[in-house]
Amino acid sequence: MAATKKAISNKEINEELKELQDKYNDLVELLKAKGSEKKDDIKSEMASKLEGLQNTTEEGLKEVYEKGTEGVEAVSGRIKQNPVASILVAFGVGYVLSKVSSNK
């Protein structure tokens, strides 16, 4: 009789182990699915932030380009208004720079 009880106990233990293994496998699958969803959410969020950053950078570059163009046009206009003075200023700056660099 003790042998039958032990056999039943082993059978019950094996059934419970099988049940635990099934639950474990279900849990692993659930975690994989949740991880995949989270990965997709993070990927989507990063793509959105990257697009926003790219737009901001493009706007900044356009603004810098426009201001640079305005500056070049302003200098060009002044040179056209006073060509002799512009040549003298350029010569003076070049002379000063050559003296400063030759002393080093």
From TrEMBL:
Keywords: Coiled coil. It comes from the Bacteria. Residues 3-37 form a coiled coil. Gene3D superfamilies: Apolipoprotein. This is ElaB/YqjD/DUF883 family membrane-anchored ribosome-binding protein. It comes from Cocleimonas flava.
